[in-house]
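chain below, 112 aa
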Amino acid sequence: MQTWWISFFPILMLCIILALHRRETKQYIAARVAKQKGEPEMYKIAQRYIGKEVLLDTVASGSYDGVIREVVDNAVVLDKNGRQTVVNLDYVIRLREYPRNKRGKKKAVIAD
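prediction:
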């Protein structure tokens, strides 16, 4: 009876486990590097709105409004009533200009 496969099987399993672990490690490193660099699309979009009054919707279902003063290092500085708020662009889902009605006034109720 051949028993060579009994010694070969654990070595094969070890190789498979190490290959899966290596692939997961590469994916983790790539995701971490992408997060550190920030999302360039949202950074570019935020730069277009500098000086305009905007609404920012974030991941945690929070929303911020104010005038964008500057976009620095993957963060947005909002100014509202003399107070400044800094929002990380990694957590921003939607960025839009503040809605206005036909007369140019701000809408009181924003339904989205």
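The chain has a mean pLDDT of 84. The two ends are 72 Å apart (CA to CA).
thats it, cya
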